[in-house]
Amino acid sequence: MNKLKEYISDSKIELNKVIFPTADEIRKAFIAVVIVVTVVALFLALVDVIMSSTLSSII
User: Fold this and answer.
1) Shortest CA distance to 23 belongs to which of 31, 13, 34?
2) What are phi and psi for residue 26, nearest 5 degrees?
3) Are 15 and 23 in contact (CB under 8 A)?
4) Helix (H/G/I), strand (E/B), else coil: 59
5) Cβ neighbours of residue 29 under 8 Å, at least 6 residues apart?
6) What is the structure's pLDDT at 58?
7) What is the DSSP secondary structure assignment for residue 20, as one 8-state letter?
8) Which tops the pLDDT comparison, 58 or 43?
9) Could you give the CA distance from residue 17 to residue 10 in angstroms, rounded to a whole number?
10) Distance between CA atoms of 18 and 6, rounded to whole angstroms?
């Protein structure tokens, strides 16, 4: 039981050291992720179209 109380106490101390992101940081990270995912998806779509048309012309 003593170890459990010590664990909970240590956990609270460690949680006080955590720096949580602000709403502005979360918004900026979200926008960056959406942009990167969109660019990668467009690139892969372009590669797919090129490969498909190339393969279709060969066959």
Assistant:
1) 31
2) -65, -45
3) no
4) coil
5) 21
6) 87
7) P
8) 43
9) 11
10) 19
Contact 47, 55 (CB under 8 A): no
Residue 9 one-letter amino acid: S
- Give the largest Cα separation in the chain, rounded: 74
**pLDDT tens profile 19-52:** 999 999 999 999 999 999 999 999 999 999 999 9
- If DSSP codes are grouped into helix, strand and coil, which group holds residue 58? helix
State if pTM tops 0.90.
Answer: no
Using CA atoms, how far residue 59 sits from 46, 50, 52, in Å, is 20, 14, 10
> For residue 21, what are the contacts with CB-CB under 8 A and spacing of at least 6?
29
Q: Which two tokens stand for residue 50?
A: 């090129």
